[in-house]
TrEMBL record, chains A, B:
It comes from the Bacteria. Keywords: DNA-binding, Transcription, Transcription regulation. GO terms for molecular function: DNA binding; DNA-binding transcription factor activity. This is DNA-binding transcriptional regulator, FadR family. Pfam families: FCD, GntR. InterPro entries: GntR_C, TF_FadR/GntR_C, Tscrpt_reg_HTH_GntR, WH-like_DNA-bd_sf, WH_DNA-bd_sf. SMART domains: FCD, HTH_GNTR. Residues 8-76 form the HTH gntR-type domain. Transmembrane segments: none annotated. The keyword DNA-binding applies.
Length: 250, 250
DNA sequence: ATGGATGAATTGGTCAGGCCACTTGGCCAA
DNA sequence: TTGGCCAAGTGGCCTGACCAATTCATCCAT
């Protein structure tokens, strides 16, 4: 019937096997793997198959292949399953708290460096936002642009990238559904006013005020978020729980 | 000599070539690529090389390989052109500046929340560092752990993850080579002393001092890096570095 | 002895050719 | 028309070999 399992290709199986060895720590970071020929013999497959599997792992960043030298387990600290109870899930509150800490610092820094051309970018963004408060999709884009634009004032590409990446992480399919319940013309208008306050503080080259305005903005975002459905769906503070566990661990 | 970069492997070049054909639309979405044997003939390489290149593209999600049928351009790449010239390669100085802004804010926050158990974690880390100043690989691990531990004091999983991810981004093969020239027992000892100053400020629940200590630490890291940076190897041609970049990207 | 050059062993990179399993589409028979 | 069947096309995998880069122990000159 539904044999269901598409017969996985051999090199995929080999890649999975090596991957799990790395995940469990059986192969330590920096350690050299056995030569391709030896791996082929041990796993009873041909060398081309081993090579294909290793190329998969290299593209994934798990191993580092050095010609003539060997294959080494790369430093990759994505998700360490060291935690018995898995909690790879960060709630919206936790993300907003992280954004608050990081983006406040960025706003503070931006206020010290902003020039008139930077402010012009923010003003244009505010205008755009005013025209799309009824279109949540468009508003999200512009909201994102506002936050990355502030990072852009600092003039550091890495910072811009981080800001964008953090922002994008709220967009899990899960939260997207939830967010659609509270994002509307009203909430976007209020967000825009908070954006304006941030813009003004940065334009005034007032770091402390910029930091405070950004904090207010993100705090209120969280409040808007939690008021709408946080209570009905999560009875408790999700972020706090995960946080407590983390503290004990690290 | 310092070839600086691994000479690009053939299957990588083939993958790049096909990738660019997809990017430019020369190969339309959904279109079937020529058979492996034909590609091998046209590109004047062997079929295993073609296969390896195609596996790279498959892992990247650009093509979809269907056994017995053919190789098809995946739909996914439609979202890709949003960032056509993605070369998010940021230099070590840019990354360190970003870390400075972000981690200073985290240290500030951590100083407000640290308890004795948090400090115990930092102390243990310092002890570990003292015992491995001669082992750069181990020292890197512990250095990383110190910075994520500070994020851990805040009790926010997202923050811990970001801190780790930013840290890991210096570990491209390119920087690794450069860093190996300046990381030694001496530099690790000095880093450890700076860590201790951060620990003390956090233990004293002094946010301003913690922020300052973290900034000093990262500034000096940058200084250590840049000093040996200039002396050692900077004579590489730009083309080679760009190639290394592209390689390291994945 | 010390330090640099050298060559053999190791290891990844590539090639050639072949066989097998799966997919596909058309042919043929019911 | 419908159903199964078959053969060509295609990817999956293997064997065996040679090339190129790296590594390391050895040897020679200082």
């Amino acid at each position: 019937m539904f044999s269901a399992v598409e017969s996985r290709r051999l090199y995929r199986q080999v890649a999975d096997q090596i991957r799990s060895m790395i995940a469990t720590g059986e192969l330590a970071v920096g350690q050299r793997l056995p030569p391709e020929r030896e791996l082929a013999e041990k796993l009873a497959v041909s060398r081309p198959t081993i090579r294909e599997a290793l190329i998969v792992l290299e593209v994934e960043g798990l191993v580092h292949i050095r010609m003539g030298s060997g294959i080494y387990v790369a430093r990759k600290h994505t998700v360490q399953p060291a935690q018995p109870e898995r909690e790879p899930f960060e709630g919206p509150f936790e993300l907003l708290q992280a954004r608050s800490i990081i983006e406040c610092a960025i706003a503070e820094e931006a206020a010290q460096r902003a020039t008139s051309s930077h402010i012009a970018v923010l003003d244009e963004n505010l205008q755009q936002m005013a025209s799309v408060v009824n279109d949540t999709d468009a508003a999200l884009e512009i909201d994102r642009a506002f936050h990355t634009a502030i990072a852009g004032i600092v003039g550091n590409a890495a910072l811009i990238r981080f800001t964008g990446e953090i922002y994008d992480q709220r967009m899990t399919p899960y939260f997207e559904k939830l967010a659609s319940h509270f994002e509307g013309p009203d909430s976007w208008s209020r967000a825009m006013e908070e954006h304006r306050a941030i813009r003004d503080a940065i334009a005034a080259n007032d770091p402390a005020a910029a930091k405070q305005a950004m904090r207010t903005h993100l705090d209120r975002s969280q409040k808007r978020f939690s008021e709408s459905f946080g209570e009905e769906l999560f009875g408790e503070d999700e972020g706090g729980r995960a946080a407590a566990r983390r503290n004990a661990k690290i």
